[in-house]
Amino acid sequence: MAAGRLPPTALTLKQFLRRQQVLQLYRKILRAIREVPAEQDRRYLKEWAREEFRRNKDATEEDAIRMMITHGNMQLQELQRTLKLAKS
Length: 88
Hints:
Blueprint lengths: L12 H22 L4 H17 L6 H26 L1
């Protein structure tokens, strides 16, 4: 490889930042799921989250990825609200 050249699979800055957003969302969802009191519900939600992210891992269209991140954030907020209500 010549000096200064990137491998063909290198991410652009925009793709790298979007990937970081997706990973951050995934971690937040898993952390929120840890707060679910029932073990069976925790297992179900964890598997659901994993499957959703796996199913969409090959998405490349910028608008679709942005929409999925927004949808994921809304679902995370809903889970957090539900957990907060359950604790009160």
